[in-house]
Amino acid sequence: MCLVVGFFGHPEVYILILPAFGIVSQVVAFFSSKPVFGAQGMVYAMGAISVLGFIVWAHHMYTVGLDLDTVSYFTSATMVIAVPTGMKIFSWLATLYGGRLWLTTPMWFALGFITLFTLGGVTGVVLANAGVDMLLHDTYYVVAHFHYVLSMGATFGLFAGLYFWLTLMTGLTYNEGKGQIHFFGLFVGVNLTFMPMHMMGLAGAPRRMLDHPDAYAGWNEMATWGAMTSFICLLGLAGSVLLAPQEKVGSVKSATTLEWVLPATPANHTFSQLPALRSTPKASLLA
Q1: What burial letters (b/e) apply to 7-33, b meaning 16+ CB within 10 Å?
Q2: Residue 50: exposure state from Cβ atoms within 10 A (0-12, 13-18, ≥19)
Q3: What is the C-alpha to C-alpha distance for residues 252 and 236, in angstroms, rounded to an integer?
């Protein structure tokens, strides 16, 4: 039963992160004023991650009694999946390098995604080693790793997409100042929540426990303050979007993707068939 759950559960992690990969590629390229670096390699990397995600399903299950050969395989396969993931990170960094950066709220969330996902990936490589995972499997180190990758990484990617396409979907602006307060407060809060969990895990704090010894009280208190900060800053999303002055978009900036060819809040059935692009489109976006 454990193996069946692992097979169907773990590929979900890589599938959940794929939409954030696409969003961040779009946002970073747009707000760097240059095409994404190595676009074809990025596509192949996403394909490789999708395939490899289905053959590393037991790399968090070393403690169930796998034989040594199986453990060696999943350790090696998990190391391999770090290669296409690293390709994507370095492609994003190369896109940022030399670009004219436009640091708006979507761009900040994309940069936050790259930072947090990289940190979560590094701790994932640590847990890929079966000998280390045997010690850390049922500790808060695994909780911290998972949340850095998904609950912080993928969520920041989704926030980047929300702020980026909100104007196109609604035709209205958001409050840029409140949006950036949302990002910076949330970035500090989530790191304050989950970074101490690495220390707790290395010290042996078990997960799935209601209470802990007083030795972990300091790290627990720090994580609690971080969680409260994150919750308060999530309310900033409502403040920056729902309670912001609703004004029509007026400024102009160039874009290279099809959705920006149309005016904000495009009408239904704008295209009767898939259009064929013969030139680089120009479009409007909130400046």
Answers
A1: eeebbebbeebeebbebbbbbbbbbbe
A2: middle
A3: 27
Query: What are the DSSP E strand ranges found in the chain?
Result: 252-254, 282-284
The angle, 0 to 180 degrees and rounded to 10, between the axes of the packed helices 68-96 and 39-52 is: 160
Write the CB contacts of 41 (distance below 8 Å, at least 6 apart in sequence). Answer: 87, 91
Q: How far apart are CA 231 and CA 189, in angstroms?
A: 8
Instruction: Give pLDDT tens digits for 175-214.
Output: 788 888 888 989 999 999 999 999 999 988 888 887 888 8
Its pTM stands at 0.83
SS3 labels along 54-86: CCCCCCCCHHHCCCHHHHHHHHHHHHHHHHHHH
Residues 94-117 pLDDT 10s: 999 888 888 888 999 999 999 999
pLDDT band at 255 (very low <50, low <70, confident <90, very high): low
Rg of the chain in Å (alpha carbons): 21
Residue 26 · residue 164 · CB < 8 Å: yes
